[in-house]
Structure formats: structure tokens, C-alpha cells
From TrEMBL:
It comes from the Bacteria. Transmembrane segments: none annotated. The lineage of its organism: Bacteria, Pseudomonadati, Pseudomonadota, Alphaproteobacteria, Rhodobacterales. Residues 111-176 form the Tyrosine specific protein phosphatases domain. InterPro entries: Prot-tyrosine_phosphatase-like, Tyr_Pase_dom. This is Protein phosphatase.
Length: 213
């Protein structure tokens, strides 16, 4: 890809980002759990008011090159950098937006996301979240890494609605209001290939996976 091509793609993305809302609802009531799935960008994930407005209680960051300080209640024993609780449960899977990810990373992301949704937290003071809430999957722009992981999850969890990775990707592109000019790079094909492989691995592992440990 030439420098001119890269520049043109960046310009298309920048224009589309400016016109697009920071997050979109892509699926309601995941698997009958009463949990809605949103996809968004860095602005959606870093704005507590936006998260609260949409009832989001879990934030899943797919970007290796994006860190967000979610701590709103710092621990008194913090020293160099604050640590403590945030208003949401925060998870991170550091994916490169393109080639360079080991194949199992997308697979690991599926299990991490599924675990976050299905996890039962102890009723203790050190687990302060009262409501599980809805889920936001995000990356920097909310159009490639987050779309890939969400498509894998929807395909595996709702196969009647999304029988292939491609049908899930197509649905998310529309729900996220990605422009046709963005589609060749949103999401990156190498990530979609990794999601197809991960879906096959999950199907292979499923008969041997206990519900809880």
C-alpha cells in the first residue's frame, strides 16, 4: 500500500469519525442474559457520563496502543500511580490493528469477554459493583479490532442470527454506521481471518469445557 493510499484511508476514517456517534448498540439481550452489546471508540470508553447514560457496566478495550485510567476511587495505599476502583469493570486485550498478533490472541479475547459476562462476583466490599450492566467493546476508532472481537462473539453466542463471521461483521458495520469507503479496512482482513480460525477452535474445545472451575 502506497503512502498516498494510506493518507487517503486516514482522511476517509477521520471524516467518518467526525460524523459518527462515539458508540452504537449492536445487539440487545445477549443470549437471553439481559445484557446489551455496544461498540465504540476511545471517546466513548473514556467518558463516564456516556457509559452511565447507556447503563454500561463492563468496558473491554481491544487496543494495545490505548490506555485509559478508569480509577475514580483511588486506594489510599497508592504511591507512584493511582490504583483502585472505577465505575465499571475494565478489561484489556492488546491487539495490533493489522498483522503481528499471535493467532491465539483473538481466541483468548473471546474467552476473556465471555468470562467477563458470565463471571459471578463475590458479595464483598472489595467487589463494589452492584449491577453487571451492559458491555462496551472498544478500540481507538471502534471500527476494526472491536468489530472483529464482537463479530466472533456474536457468531459463537448467537449462531442462529449470525451463522458466519461475515454475517456478524456485516451486521456490525451497519449498526456502527461504518461507511462503505471504510469497509475494506474496517475491520482488517487479517483480523477477520484470525476470528474465523478462533471460531473453529472454540467449536473444537467446547465439548471439553466445564461451565465453571
Amino acid at each position: 500500500m502506497s503512502t498516498a493510499d494510506v493518507t487517503r484511508i486516514k482522511e476517509v476514517f477521520a471524516a467518518a469519525d467526525a460524523a459518527r456517534a462515539p458508540l452504537h448498540l449492536v445487539h440487545e439481550n445477549l443470549g437471553g442474559r439481559g445484557i446489551n452489546l455496544f461498540i465504540g471508540n476511545k471517546h466513548a470508553a473514556s467518558t463516564p457520563e456516556t457509559l452511565a447514560e447507556h447503563g454500561i457496566g463492563m468496558v473491554f478495550n481491544c487496543a494495545v496502543n490505548l490506555d485509559i485510567n478508569m480509577v475514580t476511587q483511588p486506594d489510599s495505599s497508592s504511591r507512584a500511580l493511582p490504583f483502585g476502583w472505577g465505575p465499571v469493570r475494565y478489561y484489556k486485550l492488546g491487539i495490533v490493528d493489522g498483522p503481528g498478533n499471535p493467532a491465539p490472541m483473538i481466541l483468548a479475547g473471546y474467552y476473556q469477554l465471555k468470562g467477563a459476562i458470565d463471571q459471578v462476583l463475590p458479595q464483598k466490599a472489595s467487589y463494589p459493583w452492584e449491577d453487571r450492566g451492559h458491555v462496551l467493546i472498544h478500540c481507538r476508532g471502534g471500527r476494526s479490532r472491536s468489530v472483529t472481537l464482537a463479530a466472533l462473539f456474536l457468531h459463537l453466542e448467537c449462531p442462529d442470527q449470525y451463522p458466519t463471521i461475515e454475517t456478524a461483521v456485516d451486521h456490525i458495520r451497519v449498526a456502527r454506521e461504518l461507511q462503505k469507503e471504510e469497509w475494506p479496512q474496517a475491520p482488517k482482513e487479517v483480523l477477520v481471518d484470525a476470528a474465523r480460525w478462533a471460531a473453529d477452535m472454540v467449536q473444537m474445545i467446547a465439548p471439553h469445557t466445564p461451565k465453571t472451575l
